[in-house]
């Protein structure tokens, strides 16, 4: 399999994830995420969202749905690269606003996504903490 084909497949899967998150589509997420999925969010995020989330349900409950309750936001990926270790590097921005504050959110992110057998096994996220806090208050 060529590197371009692998990159295209990984990007397609990641884009499906971002669309499912934007739509709050639990069914799509259950087909994309491996049962042993582990998510890592930036430590120190507001609302206790940072740290390790073991399993798809924990990631949804403690990170993604918490984000949805407190922000009107969408992940907008802008750059995709396949790393030497097979993970997908995604850089972009979370754009939206805090639901309570109405303050604009424009936070840079970097996601590292590991996949196997078309299911996401692990995701690590780095987020601009200052932008996240500014929009939440």
Oligomeric state = single chain
> Biggest sheet: strands side by side, in what order?
2-1-6-5-4-3
Number of helices: 4
Number of domains: 1
In terms of DSSP E residues, the strand content is 35-45%
Q: How many distinct beta strands?
A: 6
Molecular shape? globular
CATH topology: Nuclear Transport Factor 2, Chain: A
| Low-confidence residue ranges | none
- DSSP helix fraction: 25-40%
CATH architecture: Roll
CATH class: Alpha Beta
Averaged pLDDT: 87
Which value, in Å, is the CA radius of gyration? 14 Å
Order of helices and strands: HHEEHEEEEH
Largest sheet entry: 6 strands, mixed
Output the structural class.
alpha+beta
- The separation of the N and C termini measures 48 Å
How would you portray this structure in words?
With 137 residues, the protein is of the alpha+beta class. The protein has a single domain (3-136), classed as Nuclear Transport Factor 2, Chain: A (Roll). The chain is built from four helices and six strands, in the order H-H-E-E-H-E-E-E-E-H. It has helices at 3-23, 26-32, 56-70, 129-136, and strands at residues 33-41, 51-54, 71-82, 88-98, 104-116, 119-127. A six-stranded mixed β-sheet has the order 2-1-6-5-4-3.
